[in-house]
Amino acid sequence: MKVVFDQEELSYGVNLVQRVILNRFPSVVVTVLYMKTLDEETVLLTGNDMEISLQVTISAKVEEAGETVLPARFLAEFMRRVPPGEVTLTMGSGDYTAHLASGAMEINLRCMSPLDYPVPPQVEVDDFWRGTQKEFRAALKSVDFAISSDQSRPAMTGMLLITEPGNGRVIAMDGFRFAEKKIEMNTPDGYECVIPSKAITEITRLLAADDEPFEAHIGDNHVMIRLPKILFQSRLIEAPFPFKGAKELIRRDPTTKIMVNRKALANAVERAMLVIREDAKGSNIVRFSFSESTLTISSSSPDLGQITEVVEVELTGEDLVIGFNGRYILDVLGVIDDEKVSFSFTGPLTAAIITPSRNSDFITILSPIRLATQA
């Protein structure tokens, strides 16, 4: 095997696949990357942690075809320190040492047999559905804050993706928060799957914030995302998701509706959080008191004291006093772009429905915290 790479191209590919490779694991085989020549000008790099895999094709001058398995973390760190120019990799047939040379620098790197590497299955499909990278990326980022970390409820440690004719929905929930976002895409009808949190993170990082297209496929136990020169695959979480839409959780008409400036509310909550940031209980309780055209936001700590701030709101219905985890409120406000945000309540001990003022494609349901005066 003999391949001549451009340092920038090889570094790009190695750093990309290294993101999905584990640094430590009982099996060494998932701490390495797989390299294989495809033709005279293309090399395939693969990273695989047995749950998700990433395959990247990079340009190179292939003088002798072959394949090898190299230590991923070391190679990524090494390539960051190699100066611009050509990097030549050579290996003898049946050899387990790769020789890399760049300018006056040479290194012999121990490698493994490609026969021991768990190459991701090559799934031949032609029913990819399509969408724009920017919109899908924005949808994932708008609900990922609600993904649960509780391993006792495996389905909620992922994100539910539902496809319908011409559009789709993504949903995440953790027992305290529920978030749902609709997406306009060229999607198939009747598909749904639960994508693990780690896969969501990597997909979000791979997608660009532009209108370039991407392709996706949902199989029986895997999801595939295809981009130019990149193929990402992940196993799915095979457990039923608790709810398929916000309508299943909304059982009563609201008795109080609020419209408030998003930035003004976020700034006030951030200031209220300063007092309770070191709260030993970690509940981040912020008190919201709605009356006529004002919202009084307050928080207190035995060690630091109390803070109170008044924000103007548009209120319809009954006055209300309710408590929330301030961090959860900020998470929701952080993914909304509209100038104003709508809150709907049915009482001080029932979940709030939060939506942008103009965008009907996003909804969050947030559970309150019982205040001491409500105990």
Based on CA atoms alone, the radius of gyration comes out at: 26 Å
Strand line-up of the largest beta sheet:
14-11-12-13-25-24-23-18-21-20-19-22
Largest sheet: 12 strands, antiparallel
Q: Helicity level, as a percent range?
A: 10-25%
Structural class by secondary-structure content: alpha+beta
* pLDDT averaged over residues: 91
Name the shape in a single word: elongated
Straight-line N-to-C gap: 72 Å
Q: Name the poorly predicted regions.
A: none
Share of β-strand residues: 35-45%
The total of helices stands at 6
Number of strands: 25
Describe the structure.
Helices cover 18% and strands 43% of the residues. It has 375 residues and is α+β, with helices and mostly antiparallel strands. The relative contact order is 0.11.
Topology of this protein?
Elements: E1 2-6, H1 7-18, E2 32-39, E3 42-48, E4 52-59, E5 61-64, E6 67-71, H2 72-80, E7 86-90, E8 97-102, E9 105-110, E10 129-132, H3 133-143, E11 158-164, E12 167-173, E13 177-184, E14 191-196, H4 197-206, E15 213-218, E16 222-227, E17 230-235, E18 256-261, H5 262-276, E19 285-291, E20 294-301, E21 305-317, E22 320-325, H6 326-334, E23 340-345, E24 352-356, E25 362-366
Antiparallel strand pairs: 1-5, 1-7, 2-3, 2-6, 3-4, 4-17, 7-8, 8-9, 10-15, 11-12, 11-14, 12-13, 13-25, 15-16, 16-17, 18-21, 18-23, 19-20, 19-22, 20-21, 23-24, 24-25
